[in-house]
């Protein structure tokens, strides 16, 4: 079976700095795939490279077995692949209403029936039509992220690239947004590639994941392996310990 | 023993065009030399509570309390000069994001020295040595080099450690940490917490730890206050957290996805309007 999205020996460099070093992943259709690591590990770069937003200098990215250009992506690609960014405060235009924000992707892709689609998209992310003519500063962080998700979903993509979609949100709001993402994935049979530094979030959302460090993949796991503790790399173990929360030294000294 | 800090019926409100926004509505607690956690969602008033104690409430806000007492000093009645002398030297505050809260055009070392020399009359030479010693105390390797770096040249974790160094150098008795690790990676988070924990216990400070992450707070603090809509809904010993009674506290505890639990969908908070009453 061909992977929906695959990267083969992908290398990304910013000047002399190798942000990604020979990274390969493959994501099956309908799968939810996680990328985990600390900041600077290259997990977001990998996502951006797939979206055509990073300077690829080696290797290739395949969509349904067809090689994509290093930087250029055509409209048909963005029709299928959409991205949700980390910071809902920075990713929405501050001087556009929600309505205008949601019109934009429809206009770009020449989609008819904007009226109906906007209402449905708002409804789908649980906001309702009363939010349609608000500006983003009139919304809370969780509501903004819902708008960002609605904007990505409105042109009915098949693949969603999620770059830390909940790390800027409160724990309680995070649960709501994660539930929303799971719900739409189930309803629309979407493929997710999700970046997070929170192992709890990734194991909750994804079936398989890779752990990255310094631009390289250090370990490939299934969520089940992670939960059962079948981990071989010490780096992953450290992440595991970190995700369990603070333990006072004296407690086990 | 008298508590170090007494807060009784603290209220902070902001007049706006659409009416009075009550951010803090009658918060009361006392603090000794212990670690107190304040937990709540954004907008619950937890940060404004911390800022009111620190004296950083914006000038247009209305603030009142039947008692806001730090070591025998009535903070609300104290003149600005007294409060200024407390701020930084006896009460210090660590802010959330080192990217925004450090001065971008001043080297880290100079910022620490500035704090120290504002509160203590020491020579430049001594101040520099003490700043470097403090940077070493927050486990920055090669402190002499970091001393001369600017905030944009260091990582988030190191920036936050520099901020802790800056706040602790004048030897405060009360430290208010407002989401000190929320902007940091999980792995770095623990390093920073460990340093904070060590320094607080070594120096016998009182600590108010403000966060939205109930699990993190409970693993770090002795006692936890849970705030909702400007009020305290529950106060509980951190060890007793699993027996929390208030549905809001239980909701906050349950909504985090954790390793080894398979819950789809995650339980979300069902916000009951009665809680805010």
Keywords for this structure?
heterodimer; A: 253 residues; alpha/beta; 6-stranded mixed β-sheet; 10 helices; 10 strands; B: 277 residues; Rossmann fold; 5-stranded antiparallel β-sheet; 11 helices
Strand content of chain A: 25-35%
In the CATH hierarchy, what is the superfamily of chain B? P-loop containing nucleotide triphosphate hydrolases
Query: What's the CATH class of the domain at 5-90 and 158-244 in chain A, please?
Result: Alpha Beta
Shape estimate of chain B: globular
Describe it for me?
The complex is a heterodimer of chains A (253) and B (277). Chain A is α/β, with parallel strands linked by helices and 253 residues long. Chain A has a domain at 5-90 and 158-244: Rossmann fold (3-Layer(aba) Sandwich), CATH 3.40.50. In chain A, 37% of the residues lie in helices and 25% in strands. Chain A is built from ten helices and ten strands. Chain A has helices at 43-50, 75-80, 98-108, 114-124, 141-153, 171-188, 199-205, 223-228, 234-243, 249-252, and strands spanning 5-14, 17-27, 32-36, 56-63, 66-67, 81-84, 159-163, 191-196, 208-213, 216-222. A six-stranded mixed sheet of chain A has the order 6-7-8-3-9-10, sandwiched between helices. In chain A, strands 2-1-4-5 form a four-stranded antiparallel sheet, with helices on one face. The N and C termini of chain A lie far apart (51 Å). Chain B is an alpha/beta fold and 277 residues long. Chain B has one domain (5-100, 173-276): P-loop containing nucleotide triphosphate hydrolases (Rossmann fold, 3-Layer(aba) Sandwich). Chain B is 36% helix and 24% strand. Chain B has a six-stranded mixed sheet, with helices on both faces. In chain B, strands 1, 2, 4, 5 and 6 form a five-stranded antiparallel sheet that branches. In chain B, 44% of the residues are buried. The mean pLDDT of chain B is 89. The A-B interface holds A 38-40, 140-141, 170-176, 178-179, 182-183, 197-201, 203-205, 226-227, 238-249 and B 41-43, 155-156, 185-190, 193-194, 197, 212-216, 219-220, 251-252, 255-260, 263-269.
């Amino acid at each position: 079976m061909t992977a929906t999205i695959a990267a083969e020996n992908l290398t990304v460099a910013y000047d002399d700095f190798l942000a990604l070093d020979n990274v390969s992943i493959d994501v099956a259709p309908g799968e939810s795939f996680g990328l985990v690591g600390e900041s600077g590990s290259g997990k977001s770069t990998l996502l951006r490279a797939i979206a055509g937003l990073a300077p690829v200098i080696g290797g290739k990215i395949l969509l349904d077995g067809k090689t994509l250009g290093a930087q250029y992506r055509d409209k048909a690609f963005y029709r299928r692949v959409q991205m949700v960014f980390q910071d809902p405060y920075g990713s929405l235009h501050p001087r556009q209403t929600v309505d205008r924000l949601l019109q934009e992707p429809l206009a770009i892709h020449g989609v008819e029936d904007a009226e109906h689609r906007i209402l449905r998209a708002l409804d789908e992310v649980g906001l309702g039509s009363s939010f349609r003519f608000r500006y983003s500063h009139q919304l809370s962080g969780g509501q903004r992220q819902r708008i960002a998700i609605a904007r990505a979903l409105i042109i009915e993509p098949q693949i969603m690239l999620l770059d830390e979609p909940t790390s800027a949100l409160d724990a309680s709001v995070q649960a709501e947004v994660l539930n929303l993402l799971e719900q739409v994935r189930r309803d629309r049979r979407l493929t997710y590639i999700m970046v997070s530094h929170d192992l709890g979030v990734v194991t909750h959302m994804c079936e398989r994941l890779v752990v990255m460090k310094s631009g390289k993949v250090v370990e490939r796991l299934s969520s089940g392996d992670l939960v059962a503790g079948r981990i071989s790399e010490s780096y992953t173990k450290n992440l595991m310990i970190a995700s369990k929360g603070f333990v006072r030294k004296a407690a086990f000294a | 023993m008298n508590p170090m800090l007494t807060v009784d019926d603290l209220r902070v409100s902001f007049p706006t065009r659409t009416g009075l926004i009550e951010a803090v509505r009658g918060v009361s607690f006392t603090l000794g030399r212990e670690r107190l956690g304040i937990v709540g969602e954004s907008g619950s008033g937890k940060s404004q509570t911390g800022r009111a104690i620190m004296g950083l409430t914006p000038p247009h806000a209305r603030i009142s309390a039947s008692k806001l007492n730090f070591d025998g000093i009535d903070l609300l009645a104290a003149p600005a000069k007294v409060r200024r002398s407390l701020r930084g030297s006896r009460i210090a505050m660590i802010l959330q994001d080192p990217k925004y809260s450090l001065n971008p055009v001043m080297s880290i070392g100079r910022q620490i020295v500035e704090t120290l020399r504002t509160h203590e009359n020491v020579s430049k030479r001594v101040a520099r040595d003490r700043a470097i010693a403090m940077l070493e105390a927050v486990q920055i390797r090669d402190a002499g080099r970091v001393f001369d770096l600017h905030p944009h040249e260091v990582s988030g974790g190191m920036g936050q450690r520099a901020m802790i160094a800056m706040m602790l150098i004048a030897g405060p008795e009360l430290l208010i940490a407002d989401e000190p690790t929320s902007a940091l990676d999980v792995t770095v988070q623990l390093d920073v917490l460990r340093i904070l924990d060590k320094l607080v216990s070594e120096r016998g400070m009182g600590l108010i730890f403000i966060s939205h992450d109930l699990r993190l707070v409970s693993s770090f603090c002795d006692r936890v206050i849970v705030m909702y809509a400007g009020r305290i809904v529950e106060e509980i010993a951190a060890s007793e957290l699993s027996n929390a009674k208030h549905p809001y506290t239980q909701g906050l505890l349950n909504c985090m996805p954790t390793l080894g639990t398979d819950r789809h969908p995650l339980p979300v908070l069902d916000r009951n309007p009665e809680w805010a009453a």
